[in-house]
Amino acid sequence: MPVWLNGERFEAAAAVPFDLADRGLLLGDGVFDTALALGGRIAFRDAHLERLAAACDTLGFRLDRDLAGRTMDAAAADASTGSVRLTVTRGAGPRGLAPPDDPRPTLFAANAPGRPALAFRRARLWPTPIRRNETSPAANLKTLGYLDAVLALGEAKRRGFDEAFFLNTKGRVASVGTGNLFVLKDGALLTPPPAEGVLPGIARGAVLDLGRAIGLRVAETPLEPAALHAADAVFMTNSLRLVAPVEAVGERRLAGAGPELRRLAEALCERIAAECGRDAASCLRPADVDP
Amino acid sequence: MPVWLNGERFEAAAAVPFDLADRGLLLGDGVFDTALALGGRIAFRDAHLERLAAACDTLGFRLDRDLAGRTMDAAAADASTGSVRLTVTRGAGPRGLAPPDDPRPTLFAANAPGRPALAFRRARLWPTPIRRNETSPAANLKTLGYLDAVLALGEAKRRGFDEAFFLNTKGRVASVGTGNLFVLKDGALLTPPPAEGVLPGIARGAVLDLGRAIGLRVAETPLEPAALHAADAVFMTNSLRLVAPVEAVGERRLAGAGPELRRLAEALCERIAAECGRDAASCLRPADVDP
After folding, report:
1. Among the listed residues A183, A245, A181, the one whose alpha carbon sits nearest the alpha carbon of residue A216
2. Which residues of B touch A28 (CB under 8 A)?
3. How far apart are the first and last CA of chain B?
4. Residue to test with chain A: of B33, B140, B144, B161, most A Cβ within 10 A
5. The pTM is what?
6. What 3-state DSSP class applies to A284?
């Protein structure tokens, strides 16, 4: 598969000239983004670029938004339908932890062509004992230090689950390893705020907007674990799964999907079709979230 | 500066053929090690290799110890005196979080020649609001996801401090960003156990051994923050700072160094001289820890 590094295209990822003093590689000092590509276009392109730029600001270096946008577009055009991952690091630095005064960020992307097989797919979650650390600024960023999610997902799969469910250090609901969590209850659409240690996901943001648009009472609010069991529906979001019903946490079954989740899924498909083209988005089938 | 990648030497780090699908770069899925080199030899070489192999085991891939040892030795011989950083990742993988079934780890090293300027140097610590997450297996490993330490150190430096002091999520003493913390009190040498969310540092291990050897009562035990203020001496350890007196946490001054810390520092110098040669170790001056 091709990769794009600092504006240059390489036919394969395997042996690209790279600086081994890059702080992304040495210290996880960078962020990434995963986006859905349909018909050669990135769904929620501007929101992805906006979040990436904000994350770089938080870390104290500047994203070249123009280069980032062009790189995303090239990777999406090449994949047509699939996903695009964009990675930005602070670039190379001297030995040690202190960043260089004048960072020259590294930016690279790769794609994974294929139909969006995970979209809307139901999931069972394994409650990992690893807590999401809401005291760290990194908890609100998609940083390269992703090992907690890797380890928790591995354990979930070994136990026959699809994803890992994280509490934060206060014992409240945080997220899944690769996405956000929502609760539907009595016409309200609820999800933990960033201060609870969650990423402001792109699909999360879209779902909050769409929830308001379809008349739900929308709130970002801390959630106790019991809120999952009392919910009318629980679902997870990310850019590839879109809205995915959560059937169980551990051995405990949760309320399945419901008509409100179906409406959210349809509204999300509409929004994506408006961005990427109706034909391209026709591979998304919100019927999968039916009760 | 030269680098060594998978057994091959490159004259400079800047443009080495590297796989952009490496999980160390994409997900922080790997570990590293920083060692002191004196006279072309690595201090505590076997302990460094042992810990690195154990960390790879924990992550579920195998360290090529022979290659790791040879790479460390080559980097140390090239530097003569200075530091050597060895990095091991799980290697390249397919898209997504799930690791490959048959990982082929990536191993690379670089050195930084120079006299050990940080050894024994007194430090003032800034209490970061970021907590060390003892619920994560990564808290006991020197993983590539090092952004919390980077951010906390940056903030500490901006505020005029030398390093960041971390509590864990329970509010107990954890460590500094790049090393372990010890308390001396009434003839006892105390440090938090790994379960408190700390790395089993190489210098930490050596100090525990030497503490026993010089007749201190040694214990790995949870420490409340108040224990720092009540201590006869507080010091931090890592492979480059060795034993470094902690003069203050925030605006609060701590007890300075004392005769027991001096004895520990001398014993540590002796041990290093036995491994690296007396001439090579003569640049270490434990007198710096004098009260």
Report:
1. A183
2. 28, 143-147
3. 38
4. B144
5. 0.97
6. coil
User: Are B137 and A143 a contacting pair at CB < 8 A?
Assistant: no
Nearest Cα of chain B lies from the Cα of A132 at a distance, in angstroms, of 8
- Measured CA to CA, the distance from residue B61 to residue A220 in angstroms comes to 40
Of A87, A138, A177, the CB nearest to B26: A87
Measured between beta carbons, which residues in chain B are less than 8 angstroms from residue A126? none
Asked if B94 and A82 touch (Cβ cutoff 8 Å), the reply is: no
How does pLDDT run along chain B (291 residues), one tens digit per residue? 899 999 999 999 999 999 999 999 999 999 999 999 999 999 999 999 999 999 999 999 999 999 999 999 999 999 999 999 999 999 999 999 999 999 999 999 999 998 888 899 999 999 999 999 999 999 999 999 999 999 999 999 999 999 999 999 999 999 999 999 999 999 999 999 999 999 999 999 999 999 999 999 999 999 999 999 999 999 999 999 999 999 999 999 998 778 999 999 999 999 999 999 999 999 898 877 776
Taking CB atoms and an 8 Å limit, are A169 and B133 in contact across chains?
yes
Query: CB–CB of B150 and A5 under 8 A?
Result: no
- Taking a C-beta distance cutoff of 8 angstroms, is the pair B235, B204 a contact? no
Q: How many CB pairs under 8 A join A and B?
A: 179
Q: Quote the minimal CA–CA distance from B213 to chain A in Å.
A: 32
Tokens encoding A284: 């998304």
The DSSP line for chain B is --EEETTEEES-STTEEE-TTBHHHHH--EEEEEEEEETTEETTHHHHHHHHHHHHHHHT----HHHHHHHHHHHHHHHSSEEEEEEEE--B--SSSSPPSS---EEEEEEEES--TTTT--EEEEE-SPPB-TTSGGGGS-BS--HHHHHHHHHHHHTT-SEEEEEBTTSSEEEETTEEEEEEETTEEEE--GGGT----HHHHHHHHHHHHTT-EEEE----THHHHH-SEEEEEETTTEEEEEEEETTEE-----HHHHHHHHHHHHHHHHHH-HHHHTT--GGGG--
Contacts of A14 in chain B (CB under 8 A): 19, 21, 92
Measured between CB atoms, does A283 come within 8 Å of chain B?
no
Is B195 part of the contact surface with chain A (CB cutoff 8 Å)? Answer: no
Which strands sit side by side in the sheet containing B3-5, from one edge to the other? B8-10, B3-5, B106-113, B82-89, B30-38, B41-42
Which of A32, A98, A133 is opposite residue B133, by nearest beta carbon? A133
**Across the interface, do B21 and A92 touch by the CB < 8 Å criterion?**
no
A144 and B146 in contact by Cβ < 8 A?
no
